[in-house]
Each structure stands twice: as structure tokens, then as C-alpha cells.
Amino acid sequence: MTKYLISFPSEAMIVPDDQMRAVSDASHAVVEEAKAAGVWVFGGGIDESVPPVLVDGDGTVAEGAHPRTRGLDGGWTVLEVPTREEALGWAARIAAACRCAQEVRAFLDDPAS
Q1: In terms of residue numbers, what domain contains 14?
Q2: For position 77, which CATH number holds?
Q3: CA distance 84 to 89
Q4: Where is each YCII-related domain found (predicted)?
């Protein structure tokens, strides 16, 4: 089976404050469905109040992200499913719950992980 990253940037999720609770409940319901189906690996949102740091191979720590990386924020879900089509189906459920489009990427298989 392949692990898939399903994600969206913070700016994609434009939800009025009075609807945020419904979106949260809907997204948690999809999480519970994924757990019940046995495909859930992990998920969550990037804590944007904590600035990123870059740690070099020699242990040097510098403020900020990798120069070639656009900002990483928003919500992330990793699922392990047998087909890309199934990953796209879960992404559609997440998109409906979060009310924003989701990006889907496959992880390379690494037998050591």
C-alpha cells in the first residue's frame, strides 16, 4: 500500500467564523471514518505561531525555512491506501469537509520506514 499526503495551504480555507465549528466537526468526522477504515496514519495542522528553523548537517540552527521552500502551513493528512483512486476519494471527502481543494501526493516507498 502507498502512503498519500493530502494537504491544503492556510489561505485556501476561507470559512466564515460562524461556520468554523461545522467545518471542524465535519473534518473530524472524516478523520474518524479514515481511522475506522484503517487507512489513517496521521494528520494535523501546522502551528503557524511557531516559526520554522533550519538545522544544517553540522547542527547549526538558523531561523527560517529552506530558501527554496515556499511557506508550509495549513492542514495535512497522511493516509495509507491501496490505490491512487482511493486516495483521491478520501481527498474529496476532506475537501468537502474543509470546504477547500486538497492537494494529493504519493510518498515513495521506503521499506525502512
Answers
A1: 1-47+72-99
A2: 3.30.70.1060
A3: 9
A4: 18-96
